[in-house]
Amino acid sequence: xxxxxxxxxxxxxxxxxxxxxxxxxxxxxxxxxxxxxxxxxxxxxxxxxxxxxxxxxxxxxxxxxxxxxxxxxxxxxxxxxxxxxxxxxxxxxxxxxxxxxxxxxxxxxxxxxxxxxxxxxxxxxxxxxxxxxxxxxxxxxxxxxxxxxxxxxxxxxxxxxxxxxxxxxxxxxxxxxxxxxxxxxxxxxxxxxxxxxxxxxxxxxxxxxxxxxxxxxxxxxxxxxxxxxxxxxxxxxxxxxxxxxxxxxxxxxxxxxxxxxxxxxxxxxxxxxxxxxxxxxxxxxxxxxxxxxxxxxxxxxxxxxxxxxxxxxxxxxxxxxxxxxxxxxxxxxxxxxxxxxxxxxxxxxxxxxxxxxxxxxxxxxxxxxxxxxxxxxxxxxxxxxxxxxxxxxxxxxxxxxxxxxxxxxxxxxxxxxx
Length: 418
Hints:
Layout lengths: L1 H23 L3 H28 L2 H26 L4 H29 L5 H28 L1 E5 L6 E4 L4 H20 L17 H14 L1 H10 L1 H21 L4 H28 L2 H21 L3 H29 L5 H23 L2 H4 L4 H21 L1 H8 L10
Antiparallel strand pairs: 1-2
Helix pairs in contact: 1-4, 1-5, 1-6, 1-9, 2-4, 2-13, 3-4, 3-6, 4-13, 5-10, 5-12, 7-13, 9-12, 9-13, 9-15, 10-12, 11-12, 11-15
């Protein structure tokens, strides 16, 4: 939890600073194109990452990804200090490395948590992951805002203290990120590795044969596959907004700057944090399926509202709701999959889910990176399209409600039978 919080803190404002950097340098179309290419590459990486998660000690996977990430980003930051600036391709490389890190980090985190936990604690564990991770996001949003624009003559309430903070250069932010990777690496070394279950390490056969095992599980459990794909809807639309649409929405549509971006990120983290704190109460009162359906339609309504308004206060407040719906749906989804999918298959099965949601993300990115959506307030059309996608997924849930309820009634036997 601590290691994840440290890395999430540094990664949070790194990933916020890069889109902001390209937008303020009038080069956002270049960034959008690179984001699409990175997402395309992650389609193949997701498959291989799942095999790594199931084929190696998961603590070692964490150690390896943190060490490699720290070395690469430290090298790029050092080059920035030497030359005084960084080329666009090196900045994109940091972004790509972090994105690829996400692809293996979170499935490995959940599989690792499942491996170390009792089934009765799955909901508690996933909730705690959200609380720690989103607390880090809130902190990174506050710091990121100060680092991106700097602050001058800020008076500390009830004191005579006045402080200023110079605007950081992009390579200075990367140095902070690299240090966080190494701190996370050292913390992970201290973890006592005592699995609660006997894990079958799947290192037999070729990569193709190992991937085929995960594919056959989903093929033989098609309702599970459809449930998993539909339950990723909220994640997909929030991902597209955070990494491709939020910056042009704030800068071009709302005509605001880094402080609004930082405040929006903070409110998003607060909503997700709120979800992690109260979700166990909600989970005990509402079945998984009903919860996800409600959250999916609510997210669609939130995106539709964003597409129809041009008010900073509304956008900041709906960020809280997006954080809540995304985190809640993730807790429900992960808890459900924990209880259903064998741990030795968790990495590969999740890799196929990642492939499917990556395909959807690629589709949306290929549309939203068109210059039309980056001009003025045209970004609001993208928000309307994502709202429609949420409503479509919600309808699919309703159509297959009876079939899906049979999958979840073992988790909430008294309510899902109705």
